[in-house]
Amino acid sequence: MSRRFDILRLRWRSLFRRDSVERDLDKELSFHLAQQIEENIAHGMNPQAAREAALRTLGGLTQIQEDCRDMRRTNHIENLAGDLRYAFRSLRRTPSFTTIIVLTLALSIGANSAIFSVIQGVLLRPLPYAQPDRLVRIYFQSDSQPKFPLNPNDFLDFRKRNRTFESMAGMTRHDVQLSGSGEPTMLSGFLVSAGYFHMLGLSPARGRDFSADDELHERGRSAILSDRLWRARFSADPAILGRTVLLDQVPFTVVGVMQPGVHHPGNTYQAVAEGETVDVWCPFDFGEDTKDRGSHYMDAFGRLKPDVSPQRATADLIAILGQMAQEHPSEKGWRIYTLPLFQETVGRTRNMLLLLLGAVGLLLLIACVNSANLLLARATARVREIAVRSALGAARGRIVRQLLTESLVIAIAGAALGTLLAKGGVRVLVACLPAGFPRASEIRLDSGVFLFTLVVAVLTGILFGLVPALTASRADLQKSLSGRGNTASGGQSFLRSALVIGESGLACVLLIGAGLLLHSFVNLLRTDPGFRSQQVLTASIILPNEQYREGAQRTLFFKDLIDTLQTAQGVTAVGIGSDLPWTGYDENYGGYAIEGRSDEYNSKTTARYHAASADYFRALGIPLLRGRYLTDHDTHDSPHVVVINEAMANLYWPGEDAVGKRISFEDHPKADKDWISIVGVVKDVKDEPDSKGMKSAFWIPYTQFQDRRSSVVVRFTSSPSEAAVRLRQAVRQLNPDLAIGDLRFMDQIADAAFSSQRFALFLVALFASLALALATFGIYGVISYSVSQRMGEFGLRMALGARPWDLTRMILGQGLSLAAVGAALGLGSALALGRLLTSLLYGVRPADPVTLIAVALLALATAAIACFLPARRATGADPLRSLRSE
Question: Angle 59-92/47-57 helices, nearest 10 degrees?
Fold first, then answer.
């Protein structure tokens, strides 16, 4: 009975000392088991029988042990529930503190969740194709062109001869005009080879894919519609298959309707990379001339066979290219370049997103440091409470666990509010994304983002709560219970100062990043693009081949359009061109030979080629440097001429006048008619706003080379709406069945070209501003608390003759010293990390002294502002009260 009483006593003790009850219980049972075995052996039992008898005798005691263990597990659950209840009561007693810290964490966690949702949608989520890791993009490459499209006949040779690709597909952009029912509409379209959708692992939702027969010359009159076009234009008619539609006034048979959400693979064409904007796919007509190897305009893709590496596939294509070079001398000088489709799709966006992730990560770290500082201040006010709990038997681990529970409650509350903010933030981010941002439609809040937010909340709660909890649990019981422990120790003061220095340094890193991006953006705006975008209206027109089959017919239409618009009031210049700057359409390259130079053609001497009318340059405001512009006298029957840009002139005729030189587009020019004379040199037009250098480019008269698609450029002095109305009226007057596409002002095109830089600058500047506010608040908190603890000292100083300015200077010095150390650490860190920003900067170095000095001054200025109110309070100390207390 005494043994059972001992066990029950231990069970009662477990209600108060649960941490050691199981250990004590095991020791007690082991002692009694050994004692019982000795008694049984003394009565003549062998050791095995004595052990079994002892276990039967103490069976009830072992059951008590199991009961105590079950009770301990139950007490853990009850203990956690009690910790949570206490945490809620404690936080409810300090609503201001709780609100500030929850809002601080909500902003930072919400920003992290929003940016992570973008990163997950763009970088982490696989491409929406079957086994996307096996998809690659195939380019030609030369000394002058790192990425160049393929010739269609080259593609056919690769598709036929390769041994490493499961399938290959080619495509090229081919916008068309839908007419015949309702208002004529411009559609975004592509010409694709057979098996294109199969290569991507896709299939039409209705109907069939293109077959090899669809590629045959003049037999590819079939079309696959996008789900969006099918629903918007044809009211989701289930009988759409087999129906005839007019595309460029040619009847096409609808053979399929694609699944919703299918996009153009890759990010080559910015105009169609955003959302489901591919309207129609048609078969590629390879024609019958298999010897033509001069034109390179086909985008090629391939699906690797299982267990085939990209390197092996590239080697296979290189070997095939060597065979082709023997068969076709014009292929010499080309190399093969392959790129994973994912990398091609993401492009330069990856660097920008990683920058934003780093920025919000720093913001969250600053919020954690600030929260830790607030909890340290709160722990100082709770010294007596913690001391009482320790005196009543609470172990240090128990106190730390309780304080960490409070931190986790705060963090989870901040994460819950941050998730709501992130939900709205993602919508704003998607709406503000730059034009052509890849995979924008796949950005959303999902279970992965919620899991990320939960993990961030838990780690954040531990991160900012652990140090204050460990510090508070080391309270001196004697001082605390005697009422002398409610002030911060020297260690706590040092820790709070160190935390302020840390968050000031982190804020400076963000400020420097924002400053560098701002300086870079200003440099971009100041850079001369080579044209004047103000008061310029642009549009695209596609002349159907069935109606405008001859070049003379196209020339006559655009001549009549120019004449009609030039007589309109408020129009000063009208031009026709094959493309426009900064639209994604001006990326066509052509090879040429230079008179008197090597006859190597196509690979080493390439440039962007354009067609333009006489007033195209005047309408866009592109200055003439030497020679003359194209004129109306440069017709199809006159000697062929070309206008080149300054970059091409400096590259091939440095120190010479390029006017009068001749180039040829023929493989082997022999006759005089094969050569084209350079009649003018115009100022360089930047390929993109942040282009580091200029590429060669030339313009030929549009009367000598007319494409089915042309851009109209109208410079006007009237209101923009009037200019748009006059353009529509002029086109309708000449041909009411023509659609006008891409009706935009050049200002809008130029503005969209800066959207990526503007987007990154805005977000980094926003995060830097929040970081600066948090750092300022942290400095204010430390200085304010220091002043409240030293009011007696300040009173004595004033009684001894100190002036208010002396106290103000001393307090400002304390705050400015913290900010200065933090700024120094931030500047050093920014210099070390500056190379990560290099790819996003234009015209500014990561170690730009202007930006570094400006950020240092801003940090010191905000620190001075943060110290001003505590300094004023210090000057109000009562000298008499201080003397009485002494």
Answer: 50
